[in-house]
Specification:
Length: 347
């Protein structure tokens, strides 16, 4: 029995619905395993802009920093397209302020859903990739300039920033199939040359038991879609990871299936489904909650160090998928909350 405080940031669009679904499953975990989870909801994104003028209000950040783990639904929507402050700024600010430099994005394929994948079944059966994306550096956070006719975004990486995320990649590979692919653009970019040199040195000095290879991001994007089974763990910088993780999300058959974890060196992590706010289906109980529920499993595993509990959620999700208990994006008949209810009941 243990007590944990969890901040929920439902956000915009389908965010509140999938956050409710994740909470339902976490409450079922608490009951089954005898834990006490205290939930507190706070604002982020567009709803925070509407109500407070800020995409990440100070009280939200404060509550997150003091919590044991943070769950985020989704941010953004067309309503704020032309607004002076954008909902996405809230997400970038919380990542940076909480020091969440490592973003873990698993891309897996469930056998039962193999025919939903746009790729051939032979190519995607058994795919199990973990993308480790650097999340607080690079072009996302570099100095920006803008005049009427020119603009610039500076891309900077330090050895320390590269090392700490590369370590996460090596450690993850050790716990899996022992293979790490580092992706860069070292034939063109200086930051990528520093990235590659740093990863090679770390490998030589500390992780020579892991099989390391390197790819250039353009050809890696091609190989990833043609031979996804060749990959185990991928580590890459912020922008490349943003792009490659969306590419990898298509293997599973629905972007609604995948979760993610954003971790720092200490302090609470942030857990969110990789899908966006899907404003076209918001409020209709149609959103697939499985990505959110898998993020809740990652919250249990990495955030609260509750391994048996995380395993139990993943097993329940897999069983619900086999039983066809899911939403319309996968050809199922259930709504968001009913899907979550079935998974909770399996616990
Ligand atoms: C993601 C998203 C964000 C990013 C946006 C919403 C700022 O695309 O989490 O991948 O670019 O990091
Ligand atoms: Mg993205």
């Amino acid at each position: 029995m243990s007590r944990h405080s969890i901040v929920l940031l439902p956000g915009d669009g389908v965010g509140p619905e999938v956050a409710r679904a994740a909470r339902l499953v976490l409450e079922a975990v608490a009951t089954k395993f005898g834990h006490d989870f205290a939930f507190a909801e706070h604002r982020i994104g567009g709803i925070a802009i509407d109500q407070t003028g800020e995409p990440l209000p100070a009280e939200t950040l404060d509550a997150c920093v003091k919590s044991d783990a943070v769950f985020l639904g989704a941010v953004g929507g067309p309503k704020w397209d032309l607004a002076p402050k954008r909902p996405e700024q809230g997400l970038l600010a919380i990542r940076k302020s909480m020091g969440l430099f490592a973003n873990l994005r698993p891309a897996t394929v469930d056998d039962a859903l193999i025919d939903r994948s746009p790729l051939k079944a032979e190519a995607v059966r058994g795919v199990d990739i973990l993308i480790v994306r650097e999340l607080t550096g690079g072009v996302y956070f570099g100095e920006r300039t803008r005049t009427a006719t020119t603009a610039s975004d500076l891309c900077t990486y330090s050895v320390e920033e590269i090392e700490r995320v590369a370590r996460i990649g090596f450690e993850a590979a050790r716990g899996r199939r022992g293979k790490l692919t580092s992706i860069d653009k070292a034939n063109v970019l200086e930051t990528s040359r520093l990235w590659r040199e740093t990863v090679i040195r770390l490998h030589r000095d500390h992780y020579s038991d892991v099989t390391l290879d390197h790819g250039l991001v353009d050809s890696a994007a091609m190989k990833l879609i043609t031979n996804p089974r060749d990959y185990d763990v991928i580590v890459t910088e912020n922008m490349f990871g943003d792009i490659l993780s969306d590419e990898a999300s298509v293997f599973s058959g629905s972007i609604g299936l995948l979760g993610s974890a954003s971790l720092g060196s200490s302090g609470p992590g942030l857990f969110e489904p990789i899908h966006g706010s899907a404003p076209d289906i918001a409020g209709q109980d149609k959103a697939n909650p499985i990505g959110a529920i898998r993020s809740a499993a990652m919250l249990l595993r990495y955030g609260l160090k509750l391994k048996a509990e995380a395993d139990a959620v993943e097993v329940a999700v897999a069983a619900a998928i086999v039983a066809g208990e899911f939403t319309g994006d996968l050809g199922g008949k259930l709504g968001t909350q009913a899907t979550a209810g079935k998974i909770a009941a399996r616990l």
